[in-house]
Amino acid sequence: MKEMDDLRRGMDRRSFLKRSGLLGLGIASATALPVAAEAVSFNKKMMKVSKTRLAMGSFVSMTLIHPSGDQAEEAMEAAFSEIDRLSGLLSRYDHASAVYDLNTQGRLKDLAPELTQVVASSLYYHQITGGCFDVTVKPVVDLFQEKLGGEKKVWPTEAEIKNLLKLVDARNIELRERSLSFKTEGMGITLDGIAVGFIVDRVSELLMSRGIKNHLINASGDIRTRGSKEDGKPWTVAIQDPWKRKTYPDVVQMGDGAISTSGNYEIYYDQEKMFHHIVNPKTGFSPDLTTSVSIRASTTMEADALATSVCVMTPSQGTEFVNGLSACESLVIGKDGTLWKSKGWKSAAI
């Protein structure tokens, strides 16, 4: 992406990672991008192929377990190509994307089926979360970036935020079979809180279709697992500590499933973290009672959207909300470090 290239120039590595959201990626965070996949034979029957590369504005890691290293590497290349294709369609930054056209023109015809599915899912999560998940917060996020994204930082005023809230309401998205439009001029959408999960699910399905039944995909904390790791045991996933204290708040084991972690430590615009990439669509401000939310669900898209939604709620409200859902569990970390676990959350016995 051109924007990513522009950010790289004139910035040190830490500043680039911070601005582009590459700090705090969890256990799969990386400091280097291997040019080729690393293939390791761990017994006479199976190969483990791993690779990390820059995609979707972040680091994406994959680990594939398969008898044929060559077949695994071919599947992995196809998977990364699919990531590039879908992110090019759903990115709000890419000037060639459908989402960019929608935000610029206020309407879009002949929708790609993937965009239709993501927007329809966004409207569903907006409904079940009582409006806590809302892809139309883009004008407010843009304000944060405009005021606080440069060297000269000016805090957004309450009046500026309140004025933009007139443009925030997913109920003003009109989605038809092949068209999409906004009912209010000046609206825009950001799919950052759901598109990555959708893409990870699609890539996992692609790998399954190519016979890669055992794999793990980690896209900046949106994790999809299938089957088992090389020793036949469940995948082990550690929850990132928001304060980087070289410890983990919890560890879980996974077979077929998904987990997504979101929080104020990922992308923020001020040192106090009062303004970050998660916005409460009802107030226009970033939530400050919750530091991190991890959601386990059957799909990464669901985990992704719900992690964002629960961040907007208070820890108790979010935990109660998840307790009312089927096949979902949550771990919420409050700003004081208190852990809130839903009724079915299971920590790994390791």
Describe this structure in words.
The protein is of the alpha+beta class. 33% of the residues lie in helices and 21% in strands. It has ten helices and 14 strands. It has helices at 2-8, 13-19, 69-90, 98-105, 113-128, 138-148, 158-164, 195-209, 300-312, 315-323; strands at 38-41, 47-55, 58-66, 107-109, 173-175, 179-182, 214-219, 222-226, 235-238, 251-254, 257-263, 290-297, 329-334, 339-341. The strands form three sheets. Strands 1-2-3-7-8-11-12-13-14 form a nine-stranded antiparallel β-sheet. Strands 4-6-5 form a three-stranded antiparallel β-sheet, covered by helices on one side. Strand 5 (173-175) and strand 6 (179-182) form a beta hairpin. Helix 8 runs antiparallel to helix 9 (300-312) and helix 9 (300-312) packs antiparallel against helix 10 (315-323). The longest helix is centred in the N-terminal third of the chain and has 22 residues, at 69-90.
Short description:
With 350 residues, the chain is of the alpha+beta class. 33% of the residues lie in helices and 21% in strands.
Structural class: alpha+beta
Shape: globular
Helix count, per DSSP? 10
**How would a crystallographer describe the biggest sheet?**
9 strands, antiparallel
- Rg over alpha carbons: 20 Å
Helix content, binned percent: 25-40%
Mean pLDDT: 85
Percent strand equals 15-25%
* Overall number of strands: 14
Instruction: Return residue spans where pLDDT drops below 50 for at least 5 consecutive residues.
Output: 1-36
